Amino acid sequence: MPTYKLTYFPVKALAEPIRFILSYMGKEFEDFRFERENWPSIKPSMPFGKVPVLEIDGKKLHQSTAITRYLGREAGIAGSNNWEALQIDMAVDTVHDFRQALASYWYENDEKLKEKKKEEVLKETAPFYLKKLDELVKENGGYLANGTLSWGDLYFIGISDYLVGMLGYDFFEKYANLKALKDKVLAIPAIKAWIAKRPHTDL
Question: Is-annotated flag, keyword Transferase (predicted)?
Answer without folding.
Answer: yes
